């Protein structure tokens, strides 16, 4: 198992260094969730304790209180600067979207505003292919139009860790260093490296959060996994999807596809 984790980590560090070398200016999104915190841990390893690009939170003001507390504590403990980008109001989102999807779209628009203002060529994001069927179509270096629109049918081939890193002027690149990981890999790595997590991932009174999002559109699942080892054991047998607690994933058949096509993480 440790050999597998070492291989996953090595590939992620290779992708991070490749992105830093080839794509400038570069920024990284941090949601405070298990995936982006594990990615942040890998960044610190890749650059010998230094974080050489801006860390950014897309904030709707709707994160759970425990998430904000975790954010503030980790920023202080690890000693890095976090840029907080406030996202547009929900009433400014596409009215044709279902309610929960419209709420989730706020971060998409916040990211578009950030990129337009700061002119980031690339953004590092901690998503994985196994999270959702649309994300399974992603590439590690994923080109998008300047406005964030993603054509999943027109993506570069990626063979033998050879990545296309040069794109036409006006192209924005999302970079996904954890794309090859699975949910259970993240938890095994978090346990092995003793990476801090938001306590909401651990069960209290028969419930825990398997995926963290805004408090108005994310709900806990039934679970008695009160430690990381128990989460790992639970994942080995569960058939429930990781995003079962995300309201937008259960709202309409194409909600997530519409969001992803227009720039959602």
Uncertain spans: none
CATH architecture of the largest domain, by name, is 3-Layer(aba) Sandwich
The radius of gyration over CA amounts to: 18 Å
Helix content: 25-40%
Mean pLDDT: 89
CATH superfamily of the largest domain: HUPs
Number of strands: 8
**Span between termini:** 29 Å
The first-level CATH class of the largest domain is given as: Alpha Beta
The number of distinct helices, counting runs of at least 4 residues, comes to 7
- CATH fold title of the largest domain: Rossmann fold
Number of domain modules: 2
- DSSP strand (E) fraction? 5-15%
Which overall shape is indicated by the principal axes computed on the Cα atoms?
A: globular
Structural class: alpha/beta
The biggest beta sheet, please? 6 strands, mixed
Strand order of the largest sheet: 3-2-1-4-6-5
- Element string (H = helix, E = strand): HEHEHEHEEEHEEHH
Outline:
The protein is α/β, with parallel strands linked by helices and 265 residues long.
Describe the SSE topology.
Layout: H1 2-22, E1 26-29, H2 34-46, E2 55-59, H3 65-78, E3 82-86, H4 99-118, E4 122-124, E5 141-144, E6 172-175, H5 183-193, E7 207-208, E8 221-222, H6 228-235, H7 255-261
Parallel strand pairs: 1-2, 1-4, 2-3, 4-6
Antiparallel strand pairs: 5-6, 7-8
Helix pairs in contact: 1-2, 5-6
């Amino acid at each position: 198992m440790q050999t597998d984790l070492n291989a996953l980590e090595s590939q992620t560090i290779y992708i991070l260094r490749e992105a830093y070398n080839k794509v400038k200016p570069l920024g990284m999104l941090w949601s405070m969730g298990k995936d982006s915190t594990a990615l942040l841990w890998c960044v610190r390893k890749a650059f010998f304790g230094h974080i050489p690009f801006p860390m950014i939170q897309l904030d709707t003001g709707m994160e759970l209180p425990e998430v904000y507390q975790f954010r503030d504590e980790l920023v202080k403990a690890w000693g890095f600067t976090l840029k907080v980008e406030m996202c547009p109001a929900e009433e400014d989102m596409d009215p044709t979207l279902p309610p929960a999807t419209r709420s989730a779209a706020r971060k998409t628009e916040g990211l578009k505003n950030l990129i337009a203002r700061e002119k980031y060529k690339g953004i590092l994001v901690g998503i994985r292919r196994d999270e959702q069927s649309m994300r399974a179509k992603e590439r590690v270096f994923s080109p998008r139009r300047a406005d964030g629109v993603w054509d999943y049918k027109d993506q570069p081939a990626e063979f033998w860790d050879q990545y296309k890193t040069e794109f036409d002027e006006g192209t924005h690149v999302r970079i996904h260093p954890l794309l090859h990981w699975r949910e259970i890999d993240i938890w095994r790595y978090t346990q092995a490296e003793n990476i801090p997590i938001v306590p909401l991932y651990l069960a209290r009174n028969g419930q825990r959060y398997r995926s963290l999002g805004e408090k108005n559109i994310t709900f806990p699942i039934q679970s008695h996994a009160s430690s990381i080892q128990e989460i790992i054991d639970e994942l080995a047998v569960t058939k429930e999807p990781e995003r079962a607690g995300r309201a937008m994933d259960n709202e309409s058949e194409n909600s997530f596809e519409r969001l992803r096509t227009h720039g959602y993480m």
